[in-house]
Task: inverse folding
């Protein structure tokens, strides 16, 4: 089946044409407006040929455990989740609407990051809030980067030639998350009710003491709207350095001797190590750690720095392997935990989910 996959991330739009499980054409565009993306999607279809279906990544699917065929009602429901993922969800809704209007005879499938985490154990998904707030099970940890984690878990089992793998998936892109996975199932993850929780990200703060947020609201330093804007767009690496938050830029500024970048990278790595340490406690043993996402792919030196501070967990990198390319082991042969660098292939998961759904729903 030929499936065009659309993956709006917070810093990029990734487009791939997947044919029978393999990507035959792929492009990454810098984050743009949905309208220009729609024009680019049309052009991609003209160049690459017509697909049989389109799969769109939505970071937030609420409680949905798997993909769904897009119709107007579903898009209305997903639009209502927009404030829970403002860097992603509105763009996914817009692009799905635009491609449906432009290509009305093609089925469009929505695939959700949250679905992979829909079976989280209650101890991991529940916030310690009053029962009246949590009784409907809506105000809880949903978790994100699920399509990436699902692919990493599959790839890791394949590379280890093992089933029942207990592993961590560290997705280091513009968004950053750490997920503990047992035999392909998510058992804890650092992102929560929204993709704002957890590690430091390109422009997002990650976790901040809720008391600090209450304080700035109480003193009037911020109101709700400006706080949301600050936490999503003007914090993280960008906020600490005054750069765009893209690690290429942050590391260049650090190399030039800028103190703010030195501190920002130290905070980024420290907080990421804390998330890794916390996630390990949801496993009985640690077989493997997968590093994936744009930063893992393009900044192996930074992955080396990260792992240098994780010796206490038995994690070590091998500099020669780290300097390699493609999906590979990056730990030395004698290390107790196998570390992998894996290219994020959300496109293959999007296509796989769409094909499974359409195969299952096609008329006999
Ligand atoms: N050479 C590179 N090309 C692309 N991204 C890079 C490169 N080096 C580092 N990066 C980092 O990867 C991040 C993008 O990761 P990616 O997973 O593609 O993002 P998104 O969150 O948009 O899906 C950038 O913000 C940047 O920090
Ligand atoms: C959930 C999330 O932050 O995704 P991305 O890293 O693609 O922006
Ligand atoms: Mg991404």
Result:
């Amino acid at each position: 089946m030929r499936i065009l996959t659309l993956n709006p991330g917070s810093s990029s739009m990734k487009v791939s044409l997947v044919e029978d499980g393999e990507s035959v054409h792929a492009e990454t565009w810098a984050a743009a407006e949905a309208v220009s993306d729609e024009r680019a999607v049309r052009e991609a279809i003209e160049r690459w040929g017509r697909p049989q279906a389109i799969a769109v990544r939505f970071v937030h699917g609420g409680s949905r455990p798997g993909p769904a065929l897009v119709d107007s009602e579903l898009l209305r429901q997903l639009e209502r989740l927009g404030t829970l993922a403002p860097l992603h969800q509105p763009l996914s809704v817009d692009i799905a609407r635009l491609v449906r209007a432009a290509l009305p005879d093609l089925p469009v499938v929505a695939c959700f990051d949250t679905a992979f985490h829909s079976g989280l154990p209650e101890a991991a998904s529940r916030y310690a809030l009053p029962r009246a707030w949590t009784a409907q099970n809506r105000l809880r940890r949903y978790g994100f980067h699920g399509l990436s984690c699902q692919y990493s878990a599959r790839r890791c089992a394949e590379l280890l030639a093992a089933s029942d793998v207990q592993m961590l998936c560290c997705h280091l892109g513009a968004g950053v998350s750490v997920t503990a996975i047992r035999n392909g199932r998510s058992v804890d993850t650092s992102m929560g009710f929204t993709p704002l929780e957890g590690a430091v990200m390109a422009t997002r703060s990650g976790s901040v003491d809720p008391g600090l947020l209450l304080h700035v609201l109480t003193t009037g330093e911020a109101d709700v709207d400006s706080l949301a804007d600050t936490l999503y767009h003007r914090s993280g690496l960008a906020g600490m350095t005054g750069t765009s938050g893209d690690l290429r830029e942050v590391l260049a500024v650090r190399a030039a001797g800028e103190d703010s970048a030195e501190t920002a990278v130290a905070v980024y790595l420290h907080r990421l190590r804390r998330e890794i340490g916390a996630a390990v406690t949801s496993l009985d043993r640690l077989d493997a750690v997968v590093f994936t996402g744009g930063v893992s792919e393009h900044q192996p030196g930074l992955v080396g720095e990260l792992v240098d501070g994780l010796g206490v967990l038995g994690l070590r990198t091998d500099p020669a392997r780290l300097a390699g390319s493609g999906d590979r082991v990056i730990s030395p042969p004698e290390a107790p935990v196998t570390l992998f660098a894996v290219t994020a292939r959300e496109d293959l998961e999007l296509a796989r989910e769409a094909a499974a759904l359409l195969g299952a729903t096609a008329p006999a």
Remarks:
- The first helix runs from residue 34 to 48.
- The first strand starts at residue 2 and ends at 8.
- Residues 2-112 form a domain with the Nucleotidyltransferase; domain 5 fold (CATH 3.30.420.40).
- The mean pLDDT is 96.
